[in-house]
Amino acid sequence: MRAIKIGLIGFGTIGAGVAKTLLSNRGLLEKRLGFPLNLKTIADIDITRDRGIKLPKGMLVSDANLIIKDPEIDIVVELVGGTEPARTFILNALKAGKHVVTANKSLLATKGKGIFDTAQSCGRDLYFEAAVGGGIPIIKTLRESLIANNYEFIYGIMNGTCNYILTEMTERGSTFQEALAKAQELGYAEADPTLDIEGLDAAHKLAILCSLAYGTAPDMKGVYVEGISKLDILDITIARELGYKVKLLGMAIDRGEMVEARVHPVLIPFNYLLSKVDGVFNAFYVKGDIVDSTLFYGRGAGMLPTASAVLSDIADIARNIQTGIAGRIPHLGYRKDQSMKRSFLPIDDISSNYYLRINVMDRPGVLAQIAGVLGEKDISILTVIQKGHQEGGFVPIVMLTHEAKESNIKSAVKSIAALKMVNGKPVVLRVEDKAIKKHAQR
Predict the structure, then answer these.
(1) Residue 338: pLDDT band with limits 50, 70, 90
(2) Which pLDDT score, from 0 to 100, does residue 389 have?
(3) Which residue is catalytic, options 205, 245, 247, 377?
(4) CA 370 remoteness from chain centre
């Protein structure tokens, strides 16, 4: 079998990991594939910085078009990131007859439909395992390994930066700002961490997973997003006292003709496996109707874990090239004419259990008045605790509710915030706990 030649666009952290793996593990890859993978050309704006990798002379160039137009290159790997020029590179590579591997989650989540349509019309493979979960093979799992399953839900810790920050707040009592500063110091968070801490990175990943699981086109408009930047250490501490950890979860849930897709902080019990996923690690909890519950855990980012995912895509496409079967697996798991026309459930229509923290004056009748507002909105209280005094003479009252509708919670919180004995806006967090759901059903 002939050697498969590869062009790499983007020689940053992940690109360097891919190049290093292709060069250092070349012998192992050839033994497993039965043919060589040859890295022919790398393109990057910066061709002078030392990446710690010794490249053959002439391999590194500054013009990506040299790769796209090279008739010898079979697979183009895009690791530039962002929307442009990455989108143009991918589209031009597909139109030039190249197969493409990318790790560009934001591009696929926001502009993916047109890119996947182009790949299909050109008869070329477009693989993206590294776009979600770093070294965790969640894309292949949903698209291939669990193909016989209807997915009841997918819950995921999808952002290592947020998970590290929440771990520091939970285990060390750090404030959000202290934990963020440490994450930046260690290189886990960018100088501008907005995409991570506001939940957008996780939302991009969730949009892609919804496409694979439920046959929808990637659609960020359908994903509800809340980040962790407004979390108070007091709520982390109280949640811990109640037996919960706070995690930023991406949640995709099958609601029949609709899909529930949301990213936000969630209280989950200590005994849940996802609550034990700490630091920069990611995990995906997937429940299928045939396989039942499965958990996938590992490093969700980093040079070599992500490079591992990129290499798996390169190997799959290389095998397809050798056997002449491009397009054997649909890009998003469904043949285009079989894709489902599902809509997304608006956040106001979801139902959940809730954690409420309300700062109130320490006076008789306050709790009864708040309970009255909740009752008017069809919200039932499961648990109430009162914490010690804060400055100004106010005390925090914490409530866990039975399952309630989101729109009712929002309406109740607005009414409660307007009460004279309430200081500030109540804190609202959602709770995922099967035990209290079962309690409500008795």
Answers:
(1) low
(2) 61
(3) 205
(4) 36
